[in-house]
Design a protein that fits this description.
Layout: E1 5-14, E2 17-27, E3 32-36, H1 43-51, E4 58-63, E5 66-67, E6 78-81, H2 93-103, H3 108-121, H4 137-149, E7 155-159, H5 167-184, E8 187-192, H6 195-201, E9 204-209, E10 212-217, H7 219-224, H8 229-234, E11 239-249, E12 252-257, E13 260-264, E14 276-281, E15 286-287, E16 299-309, E17 313-320, E18 324-331, E19 343-348, E20 354-357
Parallel strand pairs: 3-8, 3-9, 6-7, 7-8
Antiparallel strand pairs: 1-2, 1-4, 4-5, 9-10, 11-12, 11-14, 12-13, 14-20, 15-19, 16-17, 16-19, 17-18
Helix pairs in contact: 2-3, 2-4, 3-4
The protein binds adenosine-5'-triphosphate.
The site of adenosine-5'-triphosphate has 12 residues, from strand 2 and helix 1.
């Protein structure tokens, strides 16, 4: 069974550190929900509150309709997957996965059936009799997932589950987690500071900073419509160009900047004319190859400051105007690419210029 998780004005402090600061969230039944943020922002504390290892100082935690603030961890029917797998090294794969069922006093025949089924789900049935310390990191993480899923938890909690794996294995396991989640359909909360993991897997994600939730949305919403400059730079890479709103109409604006007037057709904050803003422009939205379409907005000239060839792409630091440096990306750079000191003509689609508030209030939650 799978369940909705509600957090209502949850606060958790340690001495003077407010690790989770008035967090309200609704995690939908069956969704793979990501909590993302820099180190120390409160992600693990959040997860521990949901698991029951910490009690909130203020606020309510509900699973479905039931307030469970004081319910001990073993009565919450959650499954947990940790960064370090936390398997029992002296036990076999089968015994590790079976353990939670034994604790729940499930009979032997049912235990065997359920362990066999879940080992099929994680594609490890032939490893049942092997001691877990004779498995690779990726295999151990599959067993950790199997162990969490076998008890059919209402909520699955994953705390940086892939961060001990090497880059290639991490990519493979991402797809595995997606597949296993869609097969099991368990409401899952996944904590990470890896934005690629979140973008590639999440149904929805919350970005957290200093104990607060700054934005909640689908990966595409958060990437395309960041609520402020922190989210824009934390989720993906971006360039910031400071400016002042000159004029606006129907979700479009002319913005005066030190490199000239930029046109944006993606204005989703409420600004007044004359207000200072920060324009976020992603490196991939700076067009440096194609000739600009007729009447293309935001045509600029730039000088190449540095070139980094990465095979699939080439990255450039470009000087715009007198001193502003921005990053741009050329896909499929071929045999030529660009060279330092080349002068380029650029253009940026008006929908890719995103004006954001220049100043963010202390509480960050506008
Ligand atoms: P990381 O990504 O580095 O694991 P995090 O986002 O999970 O970080 P938390 O571990 O939740 O962050 O910590 C949030 C804040 O609360 C930090 O400032 C941390 O130092 C503090 N904190 C966490 N646990 C405790 C504790 N048991 N006692 C005192 N302070 C704590």
């Amino acid at each position: 069974m799978s369940i909705e998780v509600h957090l209502e004005h949850i606060v958790k402090a340690f001495d003077t550190t407010v690790a989770v600061n008035d967090v309200s969230l609704e995690i939908r039944e069956g969704e793979l929900f990501f909590l993302l943020g820099p180190s120390g922002c409160g992600k693990s504390t959040f997860l521990r509150i949901v698991a029951g290892f910490y009690q909130p100082d203020v606020g309510d935690l509900r699973f479905g309709d039931r307030v469970i603030n004081n319910l001990p961890p073993h009565k919450r029917n959650t499954g947990m997957v940790f960064q370090n797998y936390a398997l029992w090294p002296h036990m076999t794969v089968f015994e590790n996965v079976e353990y939670g069922l034994t604790l729940r006093k499930i009979d032997k025949g049912t235990r065997k059936k359920k362990v066999t089924e879940v080992l099929e789900v994680v594609r490890m049935p032939e490893y049942a009799d092997r001691p877990v310390n004779k498995l690779s990191g990726g295999q151990q993480q599959r067993i950790a997932l199997a162990r969490a899923l076998v008890v059919e938890p209402d909520v699955l909690l994953l705390d940086e589950p892939l961060s001990n794996l090497d880059a290639q294995l991490r990519l493979e396991m991402r797809q595995e987690i997606k597949r296993i989640h869609s097969q099991a359909g368990t409401t899952s909360i996944y904590v990470t500071h890896d934005q690629q993991e979140a973008l590639s897997l999440a149904d929805r994600m919350a970005v957290m900073k200093d104990g607060k939730i700054i934005q909640v949305g689908s990966p595409r919403e958060v990437y395309r419509f960041p609520t402020n400059a922190f989210v824009a730079s934390f989720i993906g890479e971006t360039n910031f160009i400071r400016g002042t709103i000159q004029s606006q109409s129907n979700g479009a604006a002319e913005i005066w900047t030190e490199i000239g007037t930029l046109r944006s057709t993606t204005v989703y904050h409420k600004f007044t004319d004359g207000e200072d803003v920060i324009c976020s422009i992603r490196p991939e939205s700076i067009h440096i190859e194609e000739s600009a379409p007729a009447e293309a907005p935001n045509q600029l000239r730039a000088k190449v400051l540095s070139v980094t060839y990465l095979g699939r792409i080439e990255e450039y630091q470009l000087a715009l105007g007198n001193q502003l440096a921005v990053k741009a990306i050329l896909y499929n750079p071929g045999t030529q690419g660009k060279n330092i000191d080349d002068i380029l003509n650029l253009w940026i689609s008006a929908e890719d210029v995103i004006p954001l508030p220049a100043s963010v209030p202390d509480d960050e939650d506008r």
